[in-house]
Amino acid sequence: MNGHRHDTKIIKNPEKPVSAHASNHNLNFEDCHTVKGNFEAGEMSGVGYIEWPDLSWYEGEVYCGYRHGYGMFVSSCHKVAYLGQWRMGQKHGKGLILYDDQREDLYDGDWVAGERQGYGLRVYPNGGRYIGSWVNGKRVGPGTMVWPEAHLYRGEWRAGVMEGYGEYTWGAFLNKQLVFPVENIYRGSWINGKRNGPGVLEVGGAASIEGHWKDNLKHGAGSLICGNGHVLRSDNLFKDDHLVKMESSNLPKDTDEVKPSAEVKKPRKRFKKETKATSLQKTCAKKASPHDITIMSDKKDQQHKKTISSATSEDKYLLDTRSIPIHASCHKIDISYHLDRWESFGKVKSCNQSCEFYGKSYDIADSAQGLTYSGGCYVHDMEGVSEREYEEKWLDHAISANVLYLHQVYTRYSQVACDEQPNFSTALVRLMLWQLYRDCGIHTKGVSLVQLDKMLAKNPIALIEFPHHPLELLHFWQFLHSLLDVSWVLYASQGVGYLDTRGVLGSAYYKLVMDDIMPHAYNHTGSVLFGHRDVLPLTAVYLLYKSLGEPLSARQFLLYSCGLRNAPPLPESSPPCGSNAVAVGGELMYLPEGSSPHRPQEGPRLGVGPTQVVTCLSQLCPGIKGEQGIIVDMEYPLTFLEFYEVLLLVEEWGIRKEADRNTRLAAIAVQKLIYETTHGGATSLDMRSTSVVSSRGSRRKKKKDN
């Protein structure tokens, strides 16, 4: 640095040796160094202060003339300051370096022989940040990078660029609530800073592309999931980022372009730029717009831009976006699975006796009015239309007629665990869907929530990956498939429907919406997503649930709660207080913060016996009991939400029981004190109270001995 020996052996003057006993010397050497410190055999050791002619200075520990130990160095001409550990004149260990006086360009982390190596935080002058692993001054290994535009990459690095598996999110932001945002995100393989290899691209909840990438361009085999659940698969789906022209027979049934419905919220403003750059309408255009990703150069910590441009392919490979319903209305779902189930169940039944339909009685005379009985629902005959077409028409009508209200329900329940209204689009997860069904009392109608999960997973059109996972994201079209399953098992399969509506499936769907969802939605029950939402980390409770069995039966819970089987060991100390929140990429985390109300220190208390546990189970899961209140089904499966609710209820029961016992003992003591004060000395009341307590103690001792 300017000819001054800032980074070498700094204090040594063999021509002027200093006594080993000298201390606290203030010397001016011939090379104009200003020194304060301890010297031994002409070399500085201990703690000292050195100042160079350019006013750069060092203060800290020194060994044999080298900066060694802990110290601070400030370079006045380069405006660089380092505070941390040194080893023989080089930065080594933990240290913070500031490259400007505004603290906007810095590195705080591990050093080895003067190079950034280990784990550290790098803040770039343009606002970008990287935290993760370093090797020889470059980003290598796992790390997270945030660009000034709020784009975020979390994954593997090599030689300073993205390489390996990583997740790139456009328009990331900090979320401190238990709500899942709709994100634009790519998950997959990277090579030399570009998307290469297999990956999945999710575009703002409107579409999902799974396939292969080549130099940031979609290329080769893949599958495309549209906004309404339609799927397009091909071994040659993309070429140079453009859809390959396909035969009409390979396209989905709904091939008309449908404008997004008014009830579906558009992506929030922060997604606007990125959505344009990554939407399928752009990638299918003849000239794709370039998309810039700005990263930081490792060599001199300067900003470096790499432009990823989409190559233009020949027109013969292009496919008009109107050929695929990428942005079709989300309620235009494929209902063929539900129609097939209806047909296989037996769609037409003869009716030779009076039939009850939604509270009114009809008989065979109704046939004179052109009515027929079809699976329990009366419909008008339509000449020239097959029964399947008739069912399809009226089921589609029932879905369309209720889509605005149901989308509102979907949105509000996706935000049901929020204390503040989010300012971004949100997505529903299975945990919130369970809450909706419990609020509407679906679990009290002879069907368990686990059974509904299995029905939805059995539907190949619904594309369910993890049938019982509480945090699996469900798009609106998947939510509609679940409602169709509920309406089928509760009403359509039982020959019950809604009055003045047509079609078996459509009538049952109407009845579910009108009689179950509309009157009871938002009448929240339970406390897992409300009062006790942040009592424990949800991830920890879910791991406990999985370790006992997924899905867990009521019998298994009883055995666990009563200690009749080996359960996972409880932590020695309670976890820190905090709140459950969703990080970028949909990862659930637990943010430590202040105190949390009602924190259980143990599992179900020993004072709660099997009878009380079964009472708690039957209270939250009525399907366990028969018609006369007798326990008939201890194999009833519990979802994670029900497991957690029962666990909290058992805990509260134990606390309440212990509090009642303490209250009774306190009341006896107060009575004794009052009687002694008014009458003096021991009394028959004292003896009676004492005998009651002692007799209870003796009975407990006998039971314990037995």
TrEMBL record:
Keywords from UniProt, A to Z, are: Cell projection, Cilium, Cytoplasm, Cytoskeleton, Flagellum, Repeat
| Localisation per UniProt entry | Cell projection, Cilium, Flagellum; Cytoplasm, Cytoskeleton, Cilium axoneme
| Keyword Cell inner membrane in record | no
Which portions of the chain have biased composition (kind: Basic residues)?
697-706
State the source organism's domain of life: Eukaryota
Which stretches of sequence are listed as region Disordered?
Answer: 249-311, 686-706
Q: Matching InterPro entries, A to Z?
A: MORN (IPR003409)
GO cellular component term of the entry, any:
axoneme
Identify the main location: other
Task: Please list the residue ranges that the record marks as compositionally biased, kind Basic and acidic residues.
Answer: 253-265
Pfam family, any one: MORN
Query: What protein name does the entry list?
Result: Uncharacterized protein
Q: Which species does this protein come from?
A: Timema poppense
Organism lineage reads as:
Eukaryota, Metazoa, Ecdysozoa, Arthropoda, Hexapoda
